[in-house]
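Can anyone check this?
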Amino acid sequence: MKKRFHVNRNIKIFGVIALIIAAFFLGRALNNPHSEHQQTATEHEHSDNAPTIWTCSMHPQIKLNNPGKCPLCFMDLIALTQSMNNDDTDTIPRLVLSKRAQALAGIMTVPVVRREMSSDISMSGKIAFDETRLEIIASRVSGRIDKLYANLTGIQVKKGDHLAMIYSPELLSNQQELISASAAMKFLPESASELVRSNAQSLFSAAEERMRLLGFSQQEIRKIVDNQTISDNMTIRASQEGIIIDKGVNEGDYISVGSPLFRIADLRSVWVLLDAYESDLSWLRLGQAVDFTVEAFPGETFHGTISLIDPVVNSQTRTIKVRVIASNKDLRLKPDMFVKAKARAPVTQSGRLKKNSLRGKWI
């Protein structure tokens, strides 16, 4: 029995020794430096032989054969070997979400399509009078202001409203000529020749035209002819609807021909004068839609159209004046209000500014 126990013990010892030797050779084979060096050399040789391509660190989808600038952000391209750009290797980081995660995050996707878009150009400025709707009423005769009906600035008037009455002795001679020319036509004998009748008609037409140039209406001229009466007073009337923004005379003032009496502004249309940067000039066109806001009406957006882009750059601010026409029928927009505006620049599918159909037209 002692002999059998000794044999079994020797077998176990030899088994443990065999296991240790096998583990030693296996580990040596796995960590063979010669094999690793050979593999690294092979990879290095493959990398040296692979063609080098160039990509952008911000836009990895850009891959070019030569160094240069990124066509999207204009950054310098970096070298990328072909082995790093294997089609089987995804170089763009991706985020994969389950359907449940997409629903919780509220993520929605749409197919990539080409379509027209718009770019917003921000500008600031202020509201101004529409100069095409400004009317200056000046005296056409010398005399004295006898009566001032519109004696306040800021009041609204309609076309034909009485503004002032002028006393002028010059009116007497012009009215007398009109009455004389009218009587000459009226009392022509039936035997008068066509030449005489034509001359009489010409004299009357000339006298009538002089009265119109002095500011008399057709109704006033007809009244003078019918009543055969003359007066040294003349009524000044509003030539358009609007608001009196300037009053240049008072009652009793003596005036001469051409003296400015009133300035009337029709505020149903206003200009918005904006400052645009030089870098934004290529995105602005005549007829382009502009949205703007004013502090007086927060949350409300007004609309207008570009009517003029100043051809001269301001040498101090390096900006360009952009004039916008805006409707103001309710008269809420006041001159000199500050505005913040955005011009919508339509961009075509190719990424260029859409051509302007209003170029060369009067706005």
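Reply from J.R.: I decoded it. Residues 9 and 60 are 68 Å apart (CA to CA).
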